[in-house]
Design brief:
- The chain folds into 3 domains: 107 residues, Rossmann fold (3-Layer(aba) Sandwich); 153 residues, Rossmann fold, CATH 3.40.50.2300; 161 residues, Alpha-Beta Plaits.
- It contains 14 helices and 17 strands.
- The chain has a 5-stranded parallel beta sheet, sandwiched between helices. Strands 7-6-8-9-10 form a 5-stranded parallel beta sheet, with helices on both faces. The chain has a 5-stranded mixed beta sheet with strand order 12-13-11-16-17, with helices on both faces.
- Helix 4 runs parallel beside helix 9, helix 5 runs parallel beside helix 8 and helix 5 packs parallel to helix 9.
- The radius of gyration is 32 Å and the shape is elongated.
- The termini are far apart.
- InterPro entries: CheY-like_superfamily (IPR011006), Diguanylate_Cyclase (IPR050469), GGDEF_dom (IPR000160), Nucleotide_cyclase (IPR029787), Rev_trsase/Diguanyl_cyclase (IPR043128), Sig_transdc_resp-reg_receiver (IPR001789).
- It is an enzyme of class 2 (transferase).
- One of its GO terms (biological process) is phosphorelay signal transduction system.
- It comes from Pelagimonas varians.
Length: 487
């Protein structure tokens, strides 16, 4: 089944006809003959979508929509209203009451099924984002959204000859406080800053569906794929209307441009776009929080280990070296004991910032644990890695950190360095272990120093020893470092 739909209608024949049509489209259908019966069904099991008649024995369809919207579970439930005739005033009243769409009898099966697919897709996408947002809030990782919202940016793209489009845009500007812009179809795909929140594609009279091509291109474009798309079809364009919904249109006006209806639908799409943007931003923040250290903003182990594996694979393929530095703050426990944990946090944050300020964009910096930091440097040999580590030690020792109370504190670093080589295919964790051992040696030597891990022995290819020659720097040891900040 593709979804569970509740059909609410007092006329048994209407319910049966809808059940047959929806069942043929593989929907599970539940029926109710009154608003009270429908609400009772929804208390037991909430459907995926509701189709209700505008007139019920015990209440109006709009009253049922209002009752649904008053329940937490029904706030975002898609509701389609069925009217006995296509009365513009009644259609607008139903949309204003909270119905997501309005269908007039006799119902066009092609357009109806396309509308249902579109509404259910939108519901599922929003539900997934909302679920992740709710999880983040339960974990205390999300903040309340700001009450202030900036005006939306709406683009109207008329196809064909539509001299009334300019007046429509002017009238929309008077109805909404948002920015409304009329755009020529030939200029519609040009990237705009800011990106439009809603794009209205309106087919003109006599149009052959030129807007469908534009709609598909906008939905596929990286700059507009998250924009809400409203497609305006002419009354004779039932196939184009159904195709537009299946191609990704968020909403549809099937009877041509109408100022009042477009205003209502724009308000709803703007609200949904803002909700989707907020949920998407919260999800991205959650992903970022999962791979970064909350205090320093540096990457954590979850991100670092896969990154090191990719770095090692690339190093092997391209036969280029890389270096791993394990840095540890000296006597950090004494900082916490003497000045408090707030001071310790300030020291960690200051070190993280200095590392970011004095390393390349390509270098990965991670908080490895406690006061220990790991730095991965691609395309870096032993000499460049050693010079970098020594420079970092000097930066820390020569620049005291300002503590929250205003006191200045000098903190030093000890660093262990390990590098790969063309002959060395050591796994990243083994390279980290070598750097870690070098770090302990640096601690034993008195701290505030750098120790290079011994390179791994090259594989023996012959028993006779090679002729010994004086050591000399290899190309990999001479990788240039940016001139700024050199010592």
């Amino acid at each position: 089944m593709t979804g569970r739909i509740l059909v609410v209608d007092a006329v048994p024949t209407n319910r049966i006809i809808l059940r047959v049509k929806l069942s043929a489209a593989f929907y599970e259908v539940v029926q109710a003959a009154s608003g009270k019966a429908a609400l009772a069904i929804m208390k037991k099991s909430m459907p995926d979508l509701v189709i209700t008649a505008s007139d019920l024995p015990d209440m109006t369809g709009r009253a049922l929509v209002s009752a649904l919207r008053g329940q937490e579970a029904g706030v975002r439930l898609p509701v389609v209203m069925m009217h006995n005739n296509d009365d513009p005033g009644e259609r607008l009243a139903s949309l204003a009451a909270g119905a997501d769409d309005v269908l007039a009898r006799p119902i066009d099966d092609l357009v109806m099924l396309a509308r249902l697919r579109s509404l259910l897709r939108a519901r599922d996408a929003e539900a997934e984002l909302q679920l992740r947002d709710d999880t983040r809030r339960a974990l205390g990782l999300a903040e309340q959204s700001a009450e202030f919202t900036t005006p939306a940016y709406v683009v109207v793209v008329p196809t064909g000859h539509q001299p009334e489009a300019e007046k429509l845009v002017y009238d929309l500007g008077a109805e909404l406080r948002d920015r409304i812009e009329l755009v020529d179809p030939e200029d519609a795909l040009r990237e705009r800053k800011p990106t439009p929140d809603v794009i209205v594609i309106a087919e003109g009279e006599g149009s052959q569906g030129e807007g469908l091509t534009l709609l598909a291109q906008m939905r596929a474009s990286t700059s507009t794929r998250h924009a809400a798309l409203i497609y305006v079809a002419q009354p004779n364009q039932r196939r184009e209307a159904a195709s537009a919904l299946d191609m990704g249109a968020n909403d549809l006006l099937a009877g041509g441009l109408d100022l009042q209806e477009l205003t209502l639908r724009l308000k709803k799409q703007i609200e949904r776009k803002r909700t989707a943007d907020r949920l998407r931003a919260n999800m991205q923040d959650g992903l970022r929080a999962a791979v970064t250290d909350q205090l320093t903003g540096l990457y954590n182990r979850r991100y670092t280990l896969p990154h090191l594996n990719r770095l090692a694979d690339r190093s092997t393929r391209q036969r280029r070296p890389y270096a791993l530095l394990v840095a540890d703050l000296d006597h950090f426990k004494q900082v916490n004991d003497r000045y408090g944990h707030a001071a310790g946090d300030a020291v960690l944050v200051a070190l993280a910032q200095r590392l970011k300020d004095n390393l390349r964009a390509a270098d990965l910096i991670a908080r490895w644990g406690g006061e220990e930091f790991l730095i991965a440097m691609p395309d870096t040999g032993r000499l460049a890695a050693q010079r970098t580590a020594e420079r970092l030690c000097q930066i820390m020792s020569e620049n005291p950190i300002v503590l929250p109370g205003g006191e200045h504190l000098t903190v030093t670093l000890s660093i262990g360095v390990a590098t790969s080589s063309k002959q060395d295919e050591t796994a990243p964790l083994d390279l980290i272990e070598r750097a870690d051992k070098a770090l302990y040696e640096a601690k034993e030597k008195g701290r505030n120093t750098v120790v290079m891990a011994k390179p791994s022995a090259p594989p023996q290819t012959q028993k006779t020893p090679a002729r010994r020659t004086p050591p000399r720097a290899t190309q990999q040891d001479l990788f240039a470092w940016p001139s700024s900040g050199m010592i």
